Amino acid sequence: MANEKRHNIWINLADVNQPIALSVTPEDEVASREAEKLVNTLWDTWMKRYGEKSSSHELLARVAFQFARLYWVAYQQTNEVNDYLAEFERQLDEVVVNIE
């Protein structure tokens, strides 16, 4: 994987003046573009809804927080699934050993 070809892409987030350069593999470009789209969609929605009350920087910080919160929830759920599967595997091993 270390030899995998990378190329540069530029993403635009919220109202940041400069595009952000990223070096990605072709496989990772789709995820990067989808993440860019998700951030901008949420930022646009919240800017329309709360833009008069909040600065764009505050809204972008809220967007970052929202995605961090969602990441944490997904991380916790993954850990719960891993724990469940480990216990299931332990029980399955116990059953198989008792059959023999």
Structure description:
It is a single chain. The chain has 100 residues and is mainly alpha-helical. The chain has one domain (7-99). The protein is built from two helices and two strands; from the N terminus they run ββαα. The chain has a two-stranded antiparallel ribbon with strand order 1-2. α1 packs across α2. The two termini are 42 Å apart. The mean pLDDT is 92.
Quick recap of the structure?
With 100 residues, the protein is mainly alpha-helical. The protein contains 2 helices and 2 strands. The chain starts with 6 loop residues before the first strand and ends with a helix.
Enumerate the spans where pLDDT stays under 50 for 5 or more consecutive residues: none
Structural class by SSE content:
mainly alpha
Order of helices and strands: EEHH
Count, helices: 2
Count of all domains: 1
Spatial strand order of the main sheet = 1-2
Estimated radius of gyration:
21 Å
Largest sheet: 2 strands, antiparallel
Amount of helix:
55-70%
- Mean pLDDT across residues: 92
Query: What fraction of residues sit in β-strands?
Result: 5-15%
